[in-house]
Amino acid sequence: MDFSIKAFDTKNTIATAKAGVIAVAVFENKKLSQAAKALDGAGEITAALKSGDITGKTGTTLLLRGVKGAAAERVLLVGLGSDDAISEKSFTSGVTAALKVFSTLGASDAIIALPATEVKDRDVNWAIRTVVQSGHEAVFRTDGQKSKKDPAAAGVKKIALAVANDAANKLALAQAVAIASGMDLTKELGNTSANICTPTHLANVAKKLGKDYKFEVEVLDRKQLEALKMNSFLSVTNGSEQPPKFIVIKHMGGKAKDAPVVLVGKGITFDTGGISLKPGPGMDEMKYDMGGAASVLGTFRAIGEMNLKLNVIGIIASCENMPSGRATKPGDIVTSMNGLTIEILNTDAEGRLVLCDALTYAERFNPAAVIDIATLTGACIVALGHHKSGLFTRDDEAHNALADEIMAAGKNASDTAWRLPIGEEYNEQLKSNFADLANIGTPGGASCTAAAFLENFTRKYTWAHLDIAGTAWKSGGSKGATGRPVPLLSNFLIKRAA
Ligand code: BES
Ligand code: MN
Ligand code: ZN
Q1: Cα distances (Å, whole numbers) of residue 214 to 224, 252, 263, 296
Q2: Domain boundaries of the chain, sorted by first residue
């Protein structure tokens, strides 16, 4: 899908614009949007609304051919609901509905002339991102591993957005395309089966990104991890035949002396639970347990595309969590890289075991902020469903500011997070008789105790944790990775670079 901006003015009007199809909005109260009016010289659009052929309800569509007031071959009417307050949801549904029709047409190019500046509480930048992201979603394929590919997408390949062609909108479009292409990578990696998408595969993808965007990439293997005393991370990989990979990827787009933002991703390419084996049904979805790592790589593709003026370092701790004769056993005690000993009471709480050493490793970069991203706890889905990622930070001035910054970045990108607590009470739940910390808490608040565990390893810098267990992928009939939280992270970094 190719996106561009097409601005209209008094000379260069929407009525004279040539295109396979132009999408314009109509409303429930039978009113026409500005763009629809401009094409309604002969009254066909008014007539269509009057006749009831289209109600104007959110997401309804009607395709008209040969509209006399339009030079375009087709006009697609798109219902956006109420005209006095176009909601974010309405606009998004309208765009999705239009794209669906576009994909069935014998047209190759389209103009989307929906009221991008009239969405309640949203700006045109948001509207541009919504169109681009929906466009990528519409053509995203999941047949990479099928022997017979799904039929090639028909229809529209080029979309022009009818918005002002100013510097701000041009930048917004470039950023939107970068973020959407980052999400594509994150989705692709998530959906790829775990026998292919191994730690080595993730490392190779990181190296490829390094070549494409001039990132510095370093991959540490088992020997180097042993030398660093990452015994907590290594304990998770014990049962696996796949070699662990610790990936460090650097985009130094800022000033050399500027402290970097560090993104740390959980990269469990398959989580069986280990000796604390998970139940069989649905276990295939644990191929998505590298969603944090995939979001780091996707965000790097986005910032590489944008050539963002900011120093950003990605760290990915990647391995499989498998049972075997060599696997870690419940009750085993390991010494993590920062010296804290951990009693592994449940080998299925492995995410925190790989992350804690990665978080210790992050200290060496004197970071401005560290954000870890992890499909960490099923309990996060119980708490927040699939709508919002869980956000955890310490409760002090600097961290509350960071939490607000992350929440705002998410809200702005329609990729929201919601804050949940950590603190002394939760640390109490992690006490062990035999080690400094247990890797699971006493019952209750499992997402909070997981985050509290991580907090012990982050006291040397400003830190936030995103639990994306509920947001990284969808189950059921439309099973697939979502690309989240690439929009949140990209937006956060864009704001930091500004
Ligand atoms: N990767 C899982 C978390 C998960 C489970 C995410 C289901 C999405 C869907 C994680 O490693 C895990 O197994 N967590 C345990 C922690 C428990 C043992 C304290 C969980 O959530 O059950
Ligand atoms: Mn697990
Ligand atoms: Zn896991």
Answers
A1: 24, 10, 18, 16
A2: 2-162, 176-497
Has 88 been labeled as part of a binding site? no
Give tens-digit pLDDT for 89-128: 999 999 999 999 999 999 999 999 999 999 999 999 999 9
448-462 tens-digit pLDDT: 999 999 999 999 999
407 CA distance to ligand 2 middle (Å)? 26
Residue listed under structure tokens 């991890």: 225
Q: Looking at ligand 1, which atom is closest to the CA of residue 377?
A: 21
* d(C-alpha 165, C-alpha 162), whole Å: 9
Task: List pocket residues of ligand 1, CB cut-off 6 Å.
Answer: 271, 289, 346, 348-351, 375-379, 440, 446, 469
Domains 2-162 and 176-497 share a fold: no
Q: Crossing angle of helices 167-191/291-306, nearest 10°?
A: 150
Residue nearest to atom 5 of ligand 1 (CA): 378
Peptide bond into 485 cis (omega under 30): yes
Query: If we measure between CA atoms, which residue out of 221, 181, 461 comes closest to residue 338?
Result: 461
Structure tokens that stand for 176 in this block: 């939107």
Q: Can you state the angle between helices 486-497 and 397-412, rounded to 10 degrees?
A: 120
- What is the topology classification, in CATH, of domain 2-162? Leucine Aminopeptidase, subunit E; domain 1 (3.40.220)
Superfamily of domain 176-497: Zn peptidases (3.40.630.10)
